[in-house]
Amino acid sequence: MFHHSGLVCALASEELEKPVHLPENWPQGRYVLLFDPLDGSSNTDVNMPLGTIVSVLRYEGSGLPSEPEMIRKGTRQVAACYLLYGSSTMLVFTAGQGVQGFTLDPGVGEYLLSHENIRMPRAGKVYSANEGNSRKWSSGTRQFMEYLKAPDKATGGTYSARYTGCLVADVHRILLGGGIYLYPGETDKPEGKLRLLYEANPLAMVVEQAGGQASTGTMRVLEVEPKTLHQRVPLIIGSIVARLVDTRTNLARLLNHGRLAGTGRLVILPVDQGFEHGPGRSFAPNPPSYHPHYHFGLAVEAECNAYAAPLGFLEAGGGQYAGAIPLILKLNNHDMLHEDKDPLPAVTGSVKEALRLGCVAVGFTIYPGSVHCGRMYEQLREIAEEAKNAGLAVVVWSYPRGSSLSKEGETAIDVVAYAAQIAAQLGAHVIKVKLPTAHLEQAAAKKVYEAEQVPIKMLSERVKHVVQSAFAGRRIVIFSGGPKGDDKTFFEEVRAIRDGNGFGSIIGRNSFQRPKADAIKFLQTVMGIYAGEIP
């Protein structure tokens, strides 16, 4: 069939060692097909489901493609599909614009559209895995499986096991009903069993187009750079979250982790300074901090509530430290290579990536006072809506900055309180601001503060006023730790935050620029003050 279609120039299959090229005198197309002709072949003798999986690549060269030209990342696919042979025969297809399902009508001999615009449920109740191999799985994989089997604390429900031995059938069930399929790497086969080009890539494209995700356990399947035609990979594919959670659940995870669990206080380690200020300024004072794993380790060992960082840092350590500490993905960042009095950070991450990394929240910076603040507010509104729909909390760095503000005005009490109010109105659950000074920047606000005698002389009073400005304390307000400075002064500021009913601190450079032992001692002292254990 493919030989005479005029659409195909080469074929490759997991059943053939080398690709097959069409003879030059036959019609030549521009597409390469990579396929598994009979998935689940061991089911043939027992009348169980079977399948076929197909990946389609476009060939841009001249003549016939060489074998290396057929070895491409999954992101290069132009289409993918599978056929399921069971109680009926189905074709599930995507060309990168959603997923459509067709069922064979034997009466007319045609595939008819039966499942239009398939969308995978965001979570499910079914897992599919060959648990006979569980003794060869990593401890992390075994722990995850136990998590799926344990009753959900919110609903009491557990996952059910469904495994047919046919990859297509198992993935098809999950595509329609939600859940997760796993064929992880094993101790004697860490590279996995399934073929990247013939099985993992095409199924990953179908599932992602339907709103799910596909991972090797450490990275997105479609981003794997293949080296050989028959390369194998681990595969974890299915719904985007294992269990449905709401925002309150993730806020509870944030507040109930680490030394301050259950106190209503937070100490978060943020490490976005490498992007914001450059690696030399950020990490040279403590060279081990160049390594992304250092910060995960520091946050865990110091018993912080959470660790916040941009995409690259979280990806670099997320696999090793999965589940060790709540994570916050910072979704926008601003660099110092182009100094701008009216900054507009670039969006550098997404809610989908936060979910893939198992985060409890997303972080976003706004600069009230910048001429670009309107654009930032619009971006935050869209991101906050998506995050909340996915059950993630929203953490907003609200830093007044812009050509209309003086340097002193960036930390003025009226301006900082205003920034907290803006973040709350934009839907933030957690608001990060700088500690305010007693300076009043806005003339109109100054008249009101003086007329109403708003108490702002003491730092604790100013903290209380900022918290009051965030819906009378109905939003969590935490305060920036700033650059490394005098510890005695810093601890006095922490006491003022505590006494002013602030919710805690988010401390970056002032912690990770110290040797780890000193940083842990420093953070533990801060936590001791918030917990009331240190006067």
What does this structure look like?
The structure is a single chain. The chain is built from 16 helices and 25 strands. It has 535 residues and is of the alpha/beta class. The protein is elongated and about 90 Å long. The termini are far apart. The mean pLDDT is 92. Helix 11 packs parallel to helix 13 (459-469) and helix 14 (487-499) packs parallel to helix 16 (516-530). The longest helix has 17 residues, at 373-389.
List the helices and strands and how they pair.
Blueprint: E1 8-13, E2 20-21, E3 31-39, E4 50-58, E5 77-85, E6 89-94, E7 99-105, E8 110-115, E9 126-129, H1 139-149, E10 160-161, H2 167-177, E11 180-183, E12 194-195, H3 196-209, E13 213-215, E14 232-233, E15 235-238, H4 247-255, E16 266-270, H5 273-277, H6 279-283, H7 292-301, E17 306-309, H8 311-318, E18 327-330, E19 332-333, E20 346-347, H9 351-356, E21 361-366, H10 373-389, E22 393-398, H11 413-425, E23 430-433, H12 443-451, H13 459-469, E24 476-480, H14 487-499, E25 504-506, H15 509-512, H16 516-530
Parallel strand pairs: 1-3, 9-10, 9-11, 16-17, 16-25, 17-18, 18-21, 21-22, 22-23, 23-24, 24-25
Antiparallel strand pairs: 1-2, 3-4, 4-5, 5-6, 6-7, 7-8, 11-15, 12-14, 13-15, 19-20
Features:
alpha/beta; 25 strands; single chain; 535 residues; eight-stranded parallel barrel
Number of E-state strands: 25
Question: Residue-averaged pLDDT, rounded?
Answer: 92
| Number of helical elements | 16
Helix amount, in percent?
25-40%
- The coarse silhouette is elongated
Any low-confidence stretches, pLDDT <50, length ≥5?
A: none
